[in-house]
What does this fold into?
Amino acid sequence: MLKLFSQKGPAPTGPVEFLIVGLGNPGREYEGTRHNAGFMAVERIAGEIGVKIDRLKFKSLCGDGVIAGHRVLLMKPSTFMNLSGQAVQEAADFYRIPMERVLVFMDDISLEPGHVRIRRKGTDGGHNGIKNIIYLTGSDQFPRVKIGVGAKPHPDYDLAKWVLSRFGPKEKEQLDQVLEQAPRMAELIVSGRMDQAMNEYNGK
It folds into this structure.
């Protein structure tokens, strides 16, 4: 994969300009589940820019890095999905970051694995993590990357059970294709090229 970032070494300086938040549930029992696709994306970004997400702050595990010349804070909320907004609100308030500069990576059951949708803003779409972020920050004006995790096998299947299930081998391959592109998506969005990001990735 093309290396997009040079941040490997010295700690970033200057104020944090963007929050990059992956949604998921903390704890080993939730690792690799569909609901943790956002965590996986942010972890992939961290690996690409040479950052460890291991500092506990703002009810999250955090890591400082630089993307496209901007200092960013990578976040994995430790509050569980339904309270994700607590972490986002605390960090955004502390750094005085407008919601337009809070990029959220999330799972989406309306998209098949291997598919992605990038949005500038929007409603929660029934996603409890996004719902809590909107509720606590009072804004839905933040960009998000929706990562396909597949729909329930049949309508009567329990939704909570489905999103806490793990990917099959083929689904893992499809998901990994999206995760590989997560650093590129973040780079485009942070650098202000949202239209390009949407053109490159939406519908694929």
Residues 18-201 form a domain with the Rossmann fold fold (CATH 3.40.50.1470). Helices lie at 37-49, 84-95, 128-137, 159-163, 169-190, 194-201. The chain is about 35% helix and 20% strand.
